[in-house]
């Protein structure tokens, strides 16, 4: 199994429930084909660098997972078939990128823990 990371942009006209349903659909495709989700981050509504389908914003989502190359083919077919997806990019992480991803997740977790501790003190 290889380590992969995918980022996809969903159309901004979706409600929060519709966006979460779309993300669950794609993570379900990974799990159904023998993959394992390592990390999932919702980056929220962000401005696009250039208009795509006459839209200037989109919901960004990052998913890190372990899977086989066959799973990637099936996942990308689902991305192409779904009209809610504006763009997607999936790539295999080499050992250095995988180590960096682990480090980034641990730093993010430490920041969240620090923030919750500060809130508890107030």
Helix-strand blueprint:
Elements: E1 2-10, H1 16-32, E2 36-52, E3 55-67, H2 69-81, E4 85-92, H3 95-121
Antiparallel strand pairs: 1-3, 1-4, 2-3
Gross morphology is: globular
Main sheet properties: 4 strands, antiparallel
Mean pLDDT: 89
**Rg measurement, Å:** 16 Å
Please indicate the percent range of residues in DSSP E strands (runs of 2 or more): 35-45%
Strand and helix order: EHEEHEH
Short structural summary:
The chain is α+β, with helices and mostly antiparallel strands and 122 residues long. The chain is built from three helices and four strands; from the N terminus they run βαββαβα. Strands 2-3-1-4 form a four-stranded antiparallel beta sheet, with helices on one face.
Description:
This protein has three helices and four strands. With 122 residues, the protein is of the alpha+beta class. Helices cover 47% and strands 39% of the residues. It has helices at 16-32, 69-81, 95-121; strands at residues 2-10, 36-52, 55-67, 85-92. β2 (36-52) and β3 form a beta hairpin. The longest helix is centred in the C-terminal third of the chain and has 27 residues, at 95-121. Strands 2-3-1-4 form a four-stranded antiparallel sheet, with helices on one face.
């Amino acid at each position: 199994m290889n380590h992969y990371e995918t980022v996809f942009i969903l159309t901004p006209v979706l409600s929060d429930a519709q966006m979460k349903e779309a993300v669950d659909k794609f993570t379900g495709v990974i799990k159904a084909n023998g993959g394992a989700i390592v990390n999932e981050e919702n980056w929220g509504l962000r401005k696009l660098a250039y208009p795509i389908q006459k839209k200037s914003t989109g919901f960004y989502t990052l998913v890190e997972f372990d899977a086989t190359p066959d799973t990637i083919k099936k996942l990308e077919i689902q991305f192409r078939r779904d009209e809610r997806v504006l763009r997607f990019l999936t790539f295999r992480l080499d050992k250095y990128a995988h180590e960096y991803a682990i480090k980034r997740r641990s730093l993010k977790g430490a920041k969240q823990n620090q923030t919750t501790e500060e809130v508890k003190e107030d």
